[in-house]
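Predict structure. Chain length: 363.
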Amino acid sequence: MKEKIKAIKQKRKINQIEKKFEREIKKSMQLCPMKPLTKGQESDIKAYFKKHFGREVPTYWHQYLYSRNGLYSEKYIPASIYNSEILYRLNTFKFGLPYADKGFYDTLFPGFNRPRTIIKNVNGCFFDDKHSITKEEALNVCNNLDNAVIKPSLEGHWGVGVELFHTENGYIPELNTSLQNLFLQYKKNFIIQEKLEQHPDLAKLNPTSVNTIRVLSYRSNDEIKILYAVIRIGRKGKVVDNETAGGIKADINLQTGRIKGVAFGNPKEKTMPQTDSGVVLDNYSIPAFPSVLEFVKSLHERLPYFNLIGWDISVDKNGDPVMIEWNRAAELSQVAHGPAFGEYTEEILSVVKREKNTRFYKY
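Prediction complete.
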């Protein structure tokens, strides 16, 4: 009886999550012209998910994505089931928070190229790149910095709280505040790093932001597969490349490492053939792209509890891949790329059907 009640509660929670994302997609559909699906296409979508996922899904996700990029496919993954079930069956979420803490990247990814940590605050405790230090020592280390970046280290979202700054005797001109006040503002769980000097070919896309390659990787049995890669580009004058800050995305051909076609922004915007800085996107070569993909595969091997990961990778001035962060719940870039799981869609949906939903773990 208890198990039955538990199952009912879980189903109710899943329905609530799905309805939340369905409301969001319906709002997005109002912002751009919609192309109708044929009755045959709607029937194919419902049959596909009934066969491979175990139940039908609403077809307006497919209609929205088809309307944005002109590419029809029954394999598009609705954000409602992705965020309510797929993520939590592919990834073990009870390890989500501690593993996602940027303060622990040194431990999780030793030897991998990352922006240099100046200081970090983990649960109120300060560290330099090697040792525990006092708050006063942390302030002293940061008293005079050139081109530093501060960001939340735990549960940061969409570039919120990311600030580029420098200090002059403890004063921050860009923010018109003191370093002491900055520490008070962020309270705890934040990290200060040297600003990455990105590869010139990435900087051309937008010089004010670190432009990252979002790579979605998937563990298929014991092998890491690359599902897609998109380039994320900041807008003129912006520090971050996130879509919520106006950033744009364009698909990258996995074989050639070149951008395919145009970039996409928010639903109100038309497709963009070039960046704000005037770079034509189609066929633009991403530096060190094969190395980026191998880098991601090596990184993913460090996280056996997570089978689907979104990676934010840049390339430094020397042409070496740099890990910026990993995402255990990465948003799918289906507008820019097309169906997120591609040839692995049926395999992933079959895994989802048999695995438990780790959203409901009790810690």
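Summary: The mean pLDDT is 92.
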